Amino acid sequence: MLVLVAVLTVIATGDPRQLGWIALLAVAALPAFVARQHPILAPAGRFAEVIVTGFAAGSIAAASEGAAAGFRAEAILPYLAVPLLTAALRRKATEGTALLGVAAVALVAGGAVADPRTVLADPGYLAAGGQWLVLGAIVTFAAEAMRQFLQPAEATPQPYAEATRLLTQLRSVARSLPGATLDPGGISEHLLEELRLAAPGHRAAVLSASGGGRLVVLAQTGAERVDWETTLDADSAIADAWATQQPHAANRSQARTHRGGEVSSLVIPLVAGVRTIGLVILETDAAGAYPPAVVQSVTEVTDPAALRLEAALLFDDVRSLATNEERQRLAREIHDGVAQELVMVGYGIDNAQATLPEGADETAEELRTLRGEVTRVITELRLSLFELRSEVDRNGGLAAAIAEYARTLGTSAGLRVHFTFDESTARLPAATEAELLRIAQEAITNARKHAGASNLWVTCTVDPPYVEIEVSDDGKGFADNRPDGRYGLTIMAERAERIRGRLKITPRHPSGTTVAVVLGTPPRRDSVRDSVSAPEGE
Q1: CATH class of the domain defined by 179-313
Q2: How many helices (H) and strands (E) does the chain have?
Q3: Is the peptide bond before 465 cis (omega within 30 degrees of 0)?
Q4: Phi and psi at residue 467, in whole multiples of 5°?
Q5: 3-state SS string over 409-433?
Q6: Where are the domains positioned within the chain?
Q7: In the sheet that 513-519 helps form, which strands lie side by side, from edge to edge?
Q8: Could you tell me which CATH class the domain 390-522 is placed in?
Q9: pLDDT tens-place string over residues 470-500
Q10: What torsion, rounded to 10 degrees, do the Cα atoms 94, 97, 98, 103 define?
């Protein structure tokens, strides 16, 4: 473009001195050409090109002779397309508009400086300037539309096809991982084992986010259980590390209670991208145990672990979401399908009983028996629907969900239910709470259906990551010839194994059965808890 306007300028004016404007344009174009990505120099160069072009146009019009002298400003005006098109291709619409405004002012100023009486009064100069300003506006505002029009359309995959592709990749990755698992608890325990070699510590834990602005303990190590601070609004290194995404060392414990003495703590955030997904806490009973060199060693271990943990947590969320949606779908289908049809069967039996002729006592008795059986099945279906729709409220907690279920089923079966709860303010991961609730539901259902019991004892101890849930009855115990009960035990055992728990089934003296699921190791007895023990029978 510089060569073109140089030739046109010489032809229009016949004055080689006007080539000085071309040299000045070349100098003005250097910043935008050399430092094209610079946020200040590149735009400044484009504005300089527009200003030089405007003043050059006035000078060339004044140096030209003849009736059409003003039109000869068009010799250099094509150069306006260079800065305007560059701004348009870089999607800088605001800058392009500003360049047009500066160009209009520069054209007027150039004509005024050259000779206001001849140049600005020349209709040819005004027409040439207006023409190239219009062309510049078209370049500025039409370039983006042309870019989109000429760009080939990309094939957009269907949402379900894309989801299938991603889930297939996730399954392949999960199978290739050590232990073929994406379990957040297992990954957290492996991380703590790695940190034992990187830094001293008597206690350690991995925490992740949960609902309600609280943290949940995924794994921890130490001779004793620790009641870690799990709120993010407390004045603690835990809250600071979460907010700043930077390691924080302190000379006090991060537990809600501590027996005193010298202590050093280090809180390392687990950051994946821009999100804080968890924290690692290290503590030791010594002062100044975590200098910068140790912090560096710890972060070299935790940085790659953050991505692994995020993948496990996301997989857990997807699995929980899919499970809950499927349970809700089954509940809707049962309610709208089989349950409604059974109700209609019951109504049909009632109508048949009402129209029986006198003397059909045997038929009437059979219909009453059949009506009672239909009523029993409908009741079982309603309880199954309640079980399918039962979930752990993120505000109520695991114990409250188990209590609601036990109370509902106990009332329907005439059982006297006794509750004992010992629940910490800390929470378990949502997926773990859901599995524990299903195990408790199965144990309570077995006691109601098969045990023939009069009393049911439900004990729930929660001090994350430790949990123990125990369901006892005073019924007849398990019979070896009851396949449905055995199938329920298999399901409970599979659920317990999925969350790395232990299922224990023992006889209860003098009669009955005790089903218990235990997760983790027993807690220290001097930790602070929110305990609730309901009176017997409530």
Answers
A1: alpha beta
A2: 15, 11
A3: yes
A4: -145, 140
A5: HHHHHCCEEEEEEEECCCECCHHHH
A6: 1-150, 179-313, 390-522
A7: 502-507, 513-519, 466-473, 455-463, 416-423, 530-532
A8: alpha beta
A9: 999 988 876 544 445 566 788 888 888 877 7
A10: 160
